[in-house]
Design a protein that fits this description.
Order of helices and strands: EEHEHEHEHEE
Shape: globular
Strand order of the largest sheet: 3-4-5-7-6
Oligomer: single chain
Helix content: 10-25%
């Protein structure tokens, strides 16, 4: 797979030809979360906070799933994170540090190339999360290998996706993920066309 940054993320011709940034505040679990979004041609659509991420946060609130104190890893889009993406994410982690400090270790932002270097990461997670990371069919086997590795010690996987037919999203959940996981649709929002799935390793 081509690892050149311009090929890591889906991008429309002319999308984000100019570099710009935007700061947004989201209200989650009674707290304000400040997110700096940095848009440029090399990042394509990877700079955005997608609606599926907000739906996943709201789902956790609705089912009263408290992730504090848990071992959680979140996967970002593409086949890996380039340095500039990691730098932007680190800024958001720093900007949202609780006044009393993190309840355990502070979140770390690290590159992980799906299907290639997941063995550098622990398999001891309670939860593996992902929002709108199912959009390139050629990455599906790589993502599956990564999810299997990260879930070996019993992690529960939650994935939120906008169900885009042109990206084969439904096929991933119907045919690819069930090869190794028990998959359950836990929330469907037909208005926004966003599904949330829970998966556990078979």
């Amino acid at each position: 797979m081509n690892e050149d940054p311009e090929h890591l993320f889906p991008a429309d011709d002319g999308l984000f030809e100019e570099t710009f940034s935007a700061d947004s505040t989201y209200r989650v679990s009674g707290q304000n979360i400040r997110i700096h979004q940095y848009y440029c041609a090399n990042l394509g659509v990877a700079a955005s906070v997608w609606d599926s991420a907000l739906h996943l946060c709201q789902f956790f609130e609705k089912v009263s799933l408290d992730l504090s104190g848990m071992r959680v890893i979140e996967l970002g889009g593409g086949t890996g994170l380039v340095g500039i993406v990691a730098a932007r994410l680190e800024r958001n982690v720093d900007a949202n540090a609780p006044l009393s400090g993190w309840p355990s270790d502070a979140p770390a932002v690290l590159p992980l190339s799906w299907g290639h270097d997941q063995n550098r990461f622990s398999s001891s997670w309670d939860f593996v999360l992902g929002a709108d990371i199912i959009y390139l069919p050629e990455t599906f086997p790589l993502l599956l290998d990564t999810l299997v590795h990260l879930s070996k010690d019993g992690a529960v996987v939650y994935l939120a996706s906008t169900m885009r037919r042109e990206h084969g999203t439904q096929d991933f959940y119907d045919s690819v993920l069930p090869q190794m996981f028990k998959v359950e649709l836990v929330q469907r929002d037909p208005e926004s066309n966003i599904n949330i799935y829970k998966a556990t390793l078979r």
